[in-house]
Design brief:
8 helices, 15 strands, alpha/beta, 284 residues, UDP-galactose 4-epimerase, domain 1, single chain, two-stranded parallel sheet
Length: 284
Amino acid sequence: MKVLITGASSFTGKALLPMLESAGYETFMLVRQDHGFKRQILWNFSDDLPKGVPECDAIVHLAAYVDFKNGLNIAQYNVNTISSVKLAAYARRSGSYFIFTSMVGVHGTTANEYDKATPINPENNYAMSKYLAEVIVTTFANRYTIIRIGGIYGLDGPVHLGLNVAIANAYYKNEKPTMKGPGKAKRNYICVDDVARWILYLLRQYESDCFRKGLSAKETLYLAGPEIMSIEEYLNDVAETLLGVSDIHRIDGPESKDMVIRCTPFPFEPTTFRHYLRSLKENG
């Protein structure tokens, strides 16, 4: 099975690519710059798809331009939205299954819990660019899965999630986490490996008889971790598991609000936060 991937060099892409290759998928990467992939195709994400893009059975669109600033950033819309127009048209022509990674942020930040019933309310251009891409995918792709994700944690993960900074500082520098404010707000972040495993599961489902018989896949999933924990609990686990200490740095600050995602049921045994940290320490 041939799979076309964007964002192969991203945080999630680096976790997904070896899983796909181990599972025997033939992967082709659309990249903005040379990353040395065996089957990479350069594309600026705004022009038409370059010639030579092979006909693939599935598209996994991971690429994202993350920018939470309020000002209009055309480059962000090129990567997050315009590229989705081109890829959705490709998917429609070729009959490809389209997996698109979006964000729970399309609902805004005013709710305490998030699922399909939460009103759409993009509060910045990043969220808007992702939501417009969702509309494009649902309009043009015959078979698609949209994945709305909250925070993704893991070593070397994106620094806009403070938990990833805490993990990296503890792992690389032996620094205790710093918590601003009381830290009682609840979250259910998901491990990057579980996001990759979920995408692999979707591709395997696509290969199953239900899809081969022509049934359509048109769904939106919500990905989050299996545990609802406070920010304080997350940071305490980092300190205890990676550093073997029972305290963290604390500085004054306002309390955050709860932001919990009602997760789509896992099709596999999910990774707990402590299990990930233990594995990280053992492997490191």
